[in-house]
Amino acid sequence: MTLNRMWMRTRDVRARLRMMLTHGLAGFGLLMLVLMLGDRASVGLGIDSAVASADPAPSIPVEIDSKARINASQQKLVHHLARRYRVAPEVVQGLVGDSYFVGREMGVDPLLILAVVAVESSFNPIAQSNFGAKGLMQVVPRFHQDKLADHGGENTILQARTNIAVGTQILKEYIRNSGSVESGLQMYAGAVDDGSFTYSQKVLAERDRLHQVLSGSLLVTNI
Predict the structure, then answer these.
(1) What would the 3-class secondary structure string for the chain be?
(2) DSSP single-letter state for residue 63
(3) What single DSSP character describes residue 59?
(4) CA 30 to the chain's CA centroid
(5) What is the pTM of this model?
(6) In the chain, N or C terminus with fewer CB closer than 10 Å?
(7) How far apart are CA 134 and CA 141, in angstroms?
(8) What's the pLDDT at 53?
């Protein structure tokens, strides 16, 4: 083999080596790129999977005040009273619930409580008389400081639940002391000298109407 042919062969080998090296590096780079993209895809897939498979945030239960719970039958009262006294049903629902709760706790007919509220304030929780009677059951704070103290003092007199609780406590005492519902109601109104029992008849007529609503004999739509 001549020197010239040896040089040409050597150059050819170098060219092939250079080509192989170039293609090899390109292939290696391509391989690395695929691996990198694969890793990123798998990481992304892992995050998405974790989010998708994670349990949803637990819903926080809304605490329902047991005092304001009413059943389907009592809901009739809500519709009736809301229409009759033009008060928002949401407000009346709370008052009906509170009246039933207080009535059960104190052993007083809840419908009697609601009837007194209707006559005294027409379900206006901020009603006030010239005599100083306040709230749903028109309680006079200066005469019942001891009872109000159990509920946080006189400043709570316009809170619906406090007013209903204190008013019912007063009414119960008057009924017990007088010996009858009629006489107790007259004492509650400060009308013990009214021999015609006008106030008690008005309250009891309202209570009878509420009984009729519950029984279905008085249709709310006819109010």
Answers:
(1) CCHHHHHHHHHHHHHHHHHHHHHHHHHHHHHHHHHHHHHHHHHHHHHHHHHHHCCCCCCCCCCCCHHHCCCHHHHHHHHHHHHHHCCCHHHHHHHHHHHHHHHHHHCCCHHHHHHHHHHHHCCCCCCECCCCCECCCCECHHHCHHHHHCCCCHHHCCCHHHHHHHHHHHHHHHHHHHCCHHHHHHHHCCCCCCCCCHHHHHHHHHHHHHHHHHHCCCCHHHC
(2) P
(3) P
(4) 62
(5) 0.68
(6) N
(7) 8
(8) 34
* Contacts of 103 by beta carbon, 8 Å cutoff, 6+ apart: 109, 110, 112, 113, 168
Q: How far apart are CA 138 and CA 129, in angstroms?
A: 8
User: Residue 3: how many CA atoms within 13 Å on its side-chain side?
Assistant: 0
Structure tokens at 110: 């809840």
Tens of pLDDT along the chain (223 residues)?
Answer: 544 444 445 455 455 545 544 445 444 444 444 344 444 444 343 333 333 333 333 322 333 354 456 788 899 999 999 999 999 999 999 999 999 999 999 999 999 999 999 999 999 999 999 999 999 999 999 999 999 998 988 899 999 999 999 999 999 999 999 999 999 999 999 999 999 999 999 999 999 999 999 988 765 544 4
Res 11: pLDDT: 52
Sign of CA dihedral 172, 175, 180, 184: negative
Q: Which of 63, 65, 120 is nearest to 97 (CA)?
A: 65
**What span, in angstroms and rounded, lies between the C-alpha atoms of 87 and 78?**
10
Tokens describing residue 60? 């926080």
